[in-house]
Amino acid sequence: MAIPLYDYQLDAIERMSNGCILCGGVGSGKSRTSLAYYYKEQGGDLNSKKYSRMKNPKDLYIITTARKRDDLEWEEELLPFLINKKPELSMYKDMNVVIDSWNNIKKYSNVYGAFFIFDEQRVVGSGTWVKAFLKIANKNRWILLSATPGDTWQDYIPVFLANKFYKNKTEFAREHIVYSRFSKYPKIDRYIGTGKLVRLRNQILVDMDFKRQTVPHHEDVFVHYDISKYKDAMRLRWDPFKNEPIQQASGLCYVLRRIVNEDVSRQRALLEIFEKHPKIIVFYNFDYELDILKGVYYGENVTVAEWNGHAHQPVPTGNRWVYLVQYTAGAEGWNCIKTDTIVFYSQNYSYKVMQQSSGRIDRLNTPYTDLYYYHLKTRSGIDLAISKALGQKKKFNESRWVKW
After folding, report:
1. Is 357 in contact with 342 (CB distance < 8 Å)?
2. Where does a domain end: 207, 225, 251?
């Protein structure tokens, strides 16, 4: 076969169609599969033992994360298909190839007759990205790639509209949404007609039957915290860091998390893990955690790099290194096969983000079989509540937990 593909990828391609969501776990090879589908759609032969040239292929637009664009990941995926952004390096001189981030999707609203791959799908809600997506979908061939396609039926509305299952959001709401009678703002009480919704979702969702060769080992590492300081913040609703009253639920949760996250025992636990695993990725939430992590002495000849809103450094090389990654900046859109270990210095509120973060080392081409994930946490109320929400594959709700 000219294009190297796994059996489960070939199976997915057979089931794909225009407007579908290709759903595969992190590291399942969705990029390669989506390009193989495009190649087949444009006349390429996946069953040929040698490369089969496409026939007058449509222009290709790939909308992805800023990091994937900047790291040139898609350029690498295009190589087996003899496609390149630079016409002089491509087999197809007249074919236009654009790889850009979701932030710039509006620039392509007026493109007509091309093929779009929407990577790490962002079409949720009704904002600028969704409006541009709907305009593009109406005039072009397209597919979506997603590791986690949707938590609620609302998440599917833009894709349902793009597939012309409904004329607009109003029609969807009229058929399927019952709003709460006692809320001051439009709040969904329940969905009706879910049988139809399930049929429509099954029509566009293409699951990749991906069997992982890796074995994940998740371990909770419990550390200490200042119990009296924690109780005072809960009882008095007082912020000891700003020396002022706490005004809302999110502020209280932030203070409680800072109290438990800043305890020195958490740093000791991190160093003990680093002794066993000399190459580690450390995920964190807050800037004060970054200050702590950068201040830890990991030993001599240890490279420390970071990826966050302040710095965009690559994964370190060498025998001993620590890569500090902020969830918001680095939960998706990159991968690393140089290590088998991730430490979650603090938990994120979102189950989806935690899953995406875990997938950074769980790749098809990783040389490791056993992957290790260490979750640092305390037995405080806030940490246990977040753990419970994540265990139920839900997002932690601050207001509901605090009952402000």
Report:
1. yes
2. 207
